[in-house]
Design goal:
Blueprint (H helix, E strand, L loop, with lengths): L1 H24 L1 H7 L3 H4 L36 E10 L6 E9 L2 E13 L4 E9 L9 E5 L8 E7 L5 E8 L9 E9 L2 E5 L5 H4 L9 E7 L9 E9 L4 E10 L6 H7 L6 H6 L2 E5 L5 E10 L4 E6 L2 E12 L3 E8 L6 E10 L2 E9 L12 E5 L9 E4 L5 E5 L2 E5 L4 E6 L2 E12 L2 E8 L10 E7 L5 E9 L2 E4 L5 E5 L3
Antiparallel strand pairs: 1-2, 2-3, 3-4, 5-6, 6-7, 7-8, 9-10, 10-11, 11-12, 13-14, 13-20, 14-15, 15-16, 16-17, 17-18, 18-19, 19-20, 21-25, 22-23, 22-30, 23-24, 24-25, 25-26, 26-27, 27-28, 28-29, 28-30
Length: 493
């Protein structure tokens, strides 16, 4: 009996040692991935979850077409995205490739593949992790952010918490060292991240001088506020001495005052709720507050289509995947005619009848610094509200005395309010919903494009006096805010 127990103990010990050796040497990985690696590393693998699944149309594969690198990746590495660039010498093509390791798919890495002149072949010269982890959201781009023509590689995507991420790498000062790429910025924000493009001189365009570096704006939830839509804007600027993007300004941006219960329903992440909310036609709203019916977007979640109309051209995109964010929805789409044209749309809720869009597009998913589709959009009509809004031409050089002070409407679409020596400015628009005349005021404050719009019902009385009553326009129609009205008495010219 004792010998039997001793033999069993020795045998079990040997099996444990053998198991540890197999784990340590990674033999199990090679056995498991050997047969599948060549098949999967030439395309993007997009998990199908919930509303992200494709509708099964012919030719509408997830991020279709084959991707390839100059040299094969390792057996356990899965290629996600590739972007090519010409080498500094101009005699070869270089690549940045995003990939995941099959053993740790929660981390997305980037690698640089360059041409080695001495050996006459391509080599992997550099690898680094990024902040992104959601494969279906990854985007690569190359852009001169600093203005010195030393291009940066920008990796954007989302992490497991559905936060937007941006990781930026730039070749270091040691140009002789091929792998000298430094991380100059990495952000993870529950709102959105924007590269603020600024104008550069003609001398820069002609290669005669350097240009101004671009700032990065990040919009995060204001945890100190009871309003879910209140945000904190943080501006990052490049510091040449430190070689890093550093925070330079923080600004609180008030969001629309919407009924918090309804707001939580829309932003709860419950499948189909926000998709149903945006299932409509949306018109573009200019920075001056005017509605442009010549540019609109139609969201059709049930039909898995998104229609963009602008500049007399219509583009139809197939709704491929979507995921919820803190402020709305992140949608990936593909042009039904040009299958290599991909477009991602970050949709944020502004009010119960307006949304803000940030659109990125290109053939191979690079981030677009600016796009004509970015901006605010107003709902054209809903199932519960069949009377669309129509614009009324603003008054021409009319001035009124009010409890706010003296307000003057100019025929250019802007207004000024003068009170006790203080002057505030902004934009306005008169429009009509059904038989109701409305006025919207948008102050021109210093919040870098932030909006704090107010809408009033306009009731005219005798002697051209106007009474303004604060209202809210939502999916159920016009709701009175039960605030004291403001009287506008005309001023004689």
């Amino acid at each position: 009996m004792k010998k039997t127990f001793t033999g069993f103990f020795i045998g079990a010990s040997l099996l444990c040692v053998l198991f540890i050796i197999v784990l340590a040497t990674g033999l199990w990985k090679r056995f498991f991935y050997l047969k599948t690696d060549e098949r999967i590393k030439t395309r993007i693998v997009t998990p199908e979850t919930g509303s992200s699944s494709d509708s099964g149309r012919p030719g509408q594969r997830q991020w279709e077409d084959s991707l390839s690198t100059k040299i094969p990746l390792e057996n356990n590495e899965i290629l996600i995205a590739v972007i090519n660039k010409e080498s500094e010498e101009g005699n070869a093509e270089e690549q940045f490739a995003a990939y995941i390791n099959a053993a740790a798919p929660e981390n997305i890495h980037i690698t640089f593949i360059g041409y080695d002149m001495q050996s006459g072949r391509y080599r992997r010269l550099w690898n680094a992790p990024t902040a992104a982890s959601r494969v279906e959201t990854i985007s690569l781009s190359i852009h001169d952010l600093i203005g010195d023509r030393n291009n940066c590689v920008i990796v954007t995507g989302m992490n497991s918490r559905n936060e937007h991420t941006m990781t930026i790498f730039r070749k270091g000062p040691n140009q002789a060292k091929d792998d000298a790429f430094n991380k100059i910025a990495e952000l993870q924000i529950d709102g959105s991240i924007i590269i603020q493009e600024s104008g550069r001189s003609l001398a820069y365009q002609q290669g005669l001088t350097t240009g101004q570096s671009y700032n990065i704006a990040a919009y995060n939830h204001d945890s100190t506020s009871g309003n879910i839509l209140d945000q904190i804007e943080t501006i990052y600027s490049y510091n040449p001495s430190a070689g890093q993007y550093e925070q330079i300004r923080v600004t609180r941006i008030p969001g629309s005052q919407i009924e918090q219960r309804r707001l939580r329903e829309l932003l709860s992440g419950t499948p189909g709720v926000f998709e149903s909310f945006i299932n409509d036609l949306w018109y573009y709203v200019s920075p001056q507050g005017t509605i442009d019916s010549r540019q609109y977007i139609y969201f059709d979640p049930a039909g898995r289509e998104i229609i963009f109309f602008g500049e007399e051209a219509q583009q139809v995109f197939h709704w491929q995947s979507s995921m919820h964010t803190r402020y709305g929805l992140y949608v990936r789409s593909q042009n039904i005619s040009i299958t290599t044209l991909l477009r991602s749309i970050d949709i944020e809720l502004e009010s119960l009848d307006s949304i803000r869009l940030r659109v990125n597009e290109d053939v191979r998913l690079p981030i677009t610094i600016s796009t004509t589709w970015d901006g605010s959009y107003r709902r054209a009509g809903t199932v519960n509200q069949e009377r669309p809004a129509s614009r009324i031409m603003p008054a021409v050089d009319a001035a009124y005395d009010t409890s706010w002070g003296r307000i003057r409407f100019n025929n250019t679409g802007d207004y000024t309010i003068t009170s006790s020596g203080t002057v505030s400015k902004g934009y306005y628009v008169f429009y009509r919903v059904g038989e109701t005349n409305l006025l919207e005021l948008r102050p021109d404050d210093a919040n870098n494009g932030a909006e704090n719009r107010t809408v009033y019902r306009v009731d005219a009385s005798s002697n051209a006096v106007l009474n303004l009553s604060r209202v809210r326009i939502g999916s159920t129609g016009i709701q009175d805010m039960q605030e004291p009205p403001v009287t506008l008495t005309p001023v004689a010219n």
